[in-house]
Amino acid sequence: MDGNKLLIVEDNEPVAQLLAVSLSDCFTEIHFAPTLAAARRRFRLVDGTPFDFVICSFLLPDGAATEFQQWLDKYQAPRRVPFVVLAGSLPGIRRPPSDTVLLSKPFQLTELREALTRARSQAGQGPPADRIREGISFYAPGIQGL
User: Fold this and answer.
1) Domain regions of the chain by residue span
2) Residue 51: predicted pLDDT
3) How far apart are CA 22 and CA 121, in angstroms?
4) Is 104 helix (H, G, I), strand (E, B) or coil?
5) Whole-angstrom Cα distance, residue 57 to residue 38?
6) 111 exposed, middle or buried (CB, 10 Å; 0-12, 13-18, 19+)?
7) How confident is the model at residue 30 (pLDDT cuts 50, 70, 90)?
8) Sequence-ordered strand ranges (E) for 3-71
9) Which run of H or E residues covers position 135?
10) For the chain, which has fewer Cβ within 10 Å, the N-terminal or C-terminal residue?
11) At the topology level of CATH, where does 5-122 sit?
12) CA 25, 134, 34: angle at the middle one, nearest 5?
C-alpha cells in the first residue's frame, strides 16, 4: 500500500487518530473527515487524484457508511476503492450488505489487517503491505465508541 492515500471517515477523533497512527507506515497520506459531506468534499479537493483506500464509521452524524460507499462507487467508477466499515453494536439498525467488509469495534490489529486484505481483494487488488504498527490497542478504556 506504500504511496497510497487513505481517507478515514470517523466522527470520533480519538478513534481516527488511533487508526492513523497504526496505519502511518502503510500509507503516504492520511486524510480525515468527520461526516459524509466532508468526505465527499475531500474526494473533490485532494490534488485531483483519488483516494486509494477508505475506512468509514458505520454511523455518522449525517448518514451511514453504506450511503458513502454507494456514492463512491459512482464517483470512482469504474475503479473500485477498497472500503472498510467500522461498527460498534448495531441493535435495531439495518446491517450493511453482506459483501461489505465490516470491522466490529473493539478490534485487534490482526483483525484490522484482515479487514484491509479483504477490502483490497474485493476491489480486485493484491494484499496490502504488512506494516500495521504493533502494540496499539483499539480497546482503549475511556474512549467512547471503540
Assistant:
1) 5-122
2) 83
3) 21
4) strand
5) 13
6) middle
7) very high
8) 5-9, 29-33, 53-57, 59-60, 63-64
9) none
10) C
11) Rossmann fold (3.40.50)
12) 60
Asked whether the CA dihedral 139, 82, 101, 93 is positive or negative, the reply is: positive
Residue reference for cell 465490516: 102
Which grid cell is 18?
488511533
User: How confident is the model over 42-67, as a mean pLDDT?
Assistant: 83
Cα distance between residue 103 and residue 56, in whole Å: 10
C-alpha dist (Å) from residue 97 to 2, 58, 89, 123, 124: 29, 12, 16, 15, 18
Predicted pLDDT of residue 93: 57
CB 103 within 8 A of CB 112: yes
Taking every pair of C-alpha atoms in the chain, what is the biggest distance, in angstroms?
Answer: 42
pLDDT in tens, 114-143: 999 999 888 887 655 555 555 444 443 333
Residue 85 in contact with residue 39, Cβ under 8 Å? no
Determine the pLDDT at residue 47. Answer: 58
Query: pTM above 0.90?
Result: no
Q: What is the pLDDT of residue 142?
A: 38
Q: Write down how long the chain is.
A: 146
